[in-house]
Amino acid sequence: MVYGRITGKIVIIGFTAYLSFFATLGLQRDESVQINSQSQMESLLKIEKEKLGCDRNIEVKLLDPLDFFFGGRAQAVNDDKYRITIKRGSSLTTLRHELYHVCSGHLKSSSNPLTFPFYFLKYLFWEEPAAEIYSLTGLKL
Ligand SMILES: [Zn+2]
C-alpha cells in the first residue's frame, strides 16, 4: 500500500527530526560548568536540589570518562533512594537533567513492566523533553 509507505516515511522523518532537535539542544551542554570531582558534584547536587525544592535521598556517582557510558543516568535504588551517575567532565546541565527526572517522579512510572509501552511513549514525548527543557532553561513543566 502506497499510502501506508508514505505515512510510514513521514512518521520516520518526523521522529528523526524530533530526536535531532534534542540532540542539538544537548550540544549546548558543553558551554556550562564542567563537573570534574566527586566533591564538586556533591555540592552542586545540594545547590540544584534546593533550586528544585527537592528533598529526595539521592547519591551521585562520577565515572571515569573512558568508561563506556553515554551521558548521564538516573535510577531508583529502592523506594526512597535514587542514584545519578555521570561521566567526569560532564556539564552541570547533565546533572540538572538527571536531577529533574528524579525529582519530578519520572523514575517511579517505569517500575511497572505491564505499563512499559505506555511508559516508553511517556518517557520519549514528555519526560525526556521536560528534563531537557529544565536543564537548559530552568523552566519546570
Ligand atoms: Zn533524560
List keywords for this structure.
141 residues; binds zinc ion; 53% helix; 4 helices; alpha+beta; three-stranded mixed beta sheet; single chain
Give a short overview.
The protein is an alpha+beta fold.
Q: Can you walk me through this structure?
A:
By secondary structure, this protein is an alpha+beta fold. It has one domain (about 1-135). Helix content is about 55%, strand content about 15%. It is built from 4 helices and 3 strands. The chain has a 3-stranded mixed beta sheet. Strand 2 and strand 3 (about 80-85) form a beta hairpin. Helix 3 (about 90-105) crosses helix 4 (about 115-135). It is globular. Bound molecules: zinc ion. Zinc ion (ZN) binds next to helix 3 and helix 4. The site of zinc ion has 4 residues, from helix 3 and helix 4.
Query: How would you describe the oligomerization state of the chains in this entry?
Result: single chain
The beta-strand count equals 3
The number of helical runs is: 4
Q: Strand order across the biggest sheet?
A: 1-3-2
Q: Regions with pLDDT < 50 over 5+ consecutive residues?
A: none
Question: What about the largest sheet?
Answer: 3 strands, mixed
Structural domain count:
1
The Cα radius of gyration reads 17 Å
Share of helix, binned: 40-55%
Strand content: 5-15%
Order of helices and strands: HHEEEHH
Helix/strand structural class? alpha+beta
Bound molecules: zinc ion
The residue-averaged pLDDT reads 83
Spatial shape: globular
End-to-end Cα distance, whole Å, is 40 Å
